């Protein structure tokens, strides 16, 4: 069994490497197909100066040659220098900004799981009762309202109107409350709905009816027997959720003026900073792939009956 798991993990790692190569290739050629360039928007720049800048950064070479050069540099751990933030490498920018975005997304994931799983269990256990109806209304609103709307509402009421929380940056613990809340609303609501649906399905199984017949308490029946199987869809969602929160935090970071990776990514797209776009795309793609691999392994740990092939 252990050898099968190791073989499965090795296969997934090879598939991950191939997927990252596909992402690099598609992003590189699509990005260079967009009209314009990183130096076109600069003011008071002559054609000679623009040509000199393009020669300095290798943009005057044939496209396929640039692609091969980028792949070779990337394999040596070099993602190049930023075309707009002169003197700074892409790696330095990403790894200085990434912890801020990762911290926001990580806190939002933990809060979503701590709230969504119990609420889903409570909703399933109270099916058709007042608590179930209240939770359904909350989750419907949470799924329907985008994070940027939640951010604006939180800024207006808690920041400007009541002046309870700071509205800019992450200079204190209180400053995390609004951006983390804006990020956590949707995944909390989604996990609650997912958990409710899965729990209702599990509670109709024969082994749950047997547990009821044996006189087990409701708490033990739900959290020891039903939860173990009902939580599998939630585990599946955790990987994409983490990646989604990392990318979804871009808008939230912009609204709350948070110096994270999201703001750099948006700026790099607007400014045609090719190397920066490539670097952030690769990091995010790697994050998604790694999260999905970890989820598959957790599947095996939670339910030993699952075969990893």
Structure, explained:
- By secondary structure, the protein is mainly alpha-helical.
- Helix 6 crosses helix 7, helix 7 runs antiparallel to helix 10 and helix 10 packs across helix 11.
- 28% of the residues are buried.
Main β-sheet, in a few words?
Answer: none
| Element pattern in H and E | HHHHHHHHHHHH
The termini sit apart by: 10 Å
Poorly predicted runs: none
Structural class: mainly alpha
The shape is flat
Q: Rg from C-alpha positions?
A: 24 Å
Strand content: under 5%
| Mean pLDDT level | 80
Strand tally: 0
The number of helical elements comes to 12
Topology:
Elements: H1 2-33, H2 47-56, H3 63-75, H4 90-125, H5 130-144, H6 147-161, H7 177-202, H8 206-213, H9 218-230, H10 232-255, H11 261-270, H12 274-302
Helix pairs in contact: 1-12, 4-5, 4-7, 4-10, 5-7, 6-7, 6-10, 7-9, 7-10, 10-11, 10-12, 11-12
């Amino acid at each position: 069994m252990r050898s099968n798991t190791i073989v499965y993990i090795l296969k997934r790692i090879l598939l991950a490497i191939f997927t990252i190569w596909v992402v690099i290739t598609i992003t590189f050629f699509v990005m260079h197909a967009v009209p314009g360039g990183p130096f076109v928007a600069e003011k008071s720049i002559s054609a000679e100066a623009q040509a000199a800048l393009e020669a300095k950064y290798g943009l005057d070479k044939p496209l396929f040659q640039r692609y091969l050069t980028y792949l070779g540099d990337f394999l040596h751990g070099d993602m190049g220098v930023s075309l707009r933030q002169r003197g700074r490498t892409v790696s330095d920018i990403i790894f200085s900004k990434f912890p801020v975005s990762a911290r926001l997304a990580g806190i939002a994931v933990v809060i979503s799981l701590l709230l969504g799983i119990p609420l889903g269990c409570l909703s399933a256990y109270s099916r058709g009762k007042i608590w179930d109806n209240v939770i359904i209304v909350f989750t419907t609103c949470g799924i329907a309202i985008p994070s940027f709307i939640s951010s604006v509402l939180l800024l207006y009421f808690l920041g400007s109107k009541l002046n309870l929380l700071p509205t800019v940056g992450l200079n204190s613990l209180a400053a995390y409350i609004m951006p983390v809340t804006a990020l956590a609303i949707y995944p909390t609501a989604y996990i609650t709905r997912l958990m409710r649906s899965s729990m209702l399905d599990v509670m109709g199984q024969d082994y749950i009816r047997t547990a009821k017949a044996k006189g087990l308490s409701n708490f033990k029946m739900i959290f020891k027997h039903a939860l173990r199987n009902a939580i599998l869809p939630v585990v599946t969602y955790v990987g994409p959720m983490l990646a989604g929160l990392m990318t979804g935090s871009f808008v939230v970071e912009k609204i709350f003026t948070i110096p994270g990776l999201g703001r750099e990514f948006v700026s790099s797209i607007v400014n045609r900073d090719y190397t920066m776009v490539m670097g952030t795309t690769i990091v995010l793609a790697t994050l998604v792939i790694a999260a999905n691999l970890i989820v598959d392994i957790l599947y095996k740990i939670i339910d030993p009956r699952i075969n990893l092939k």
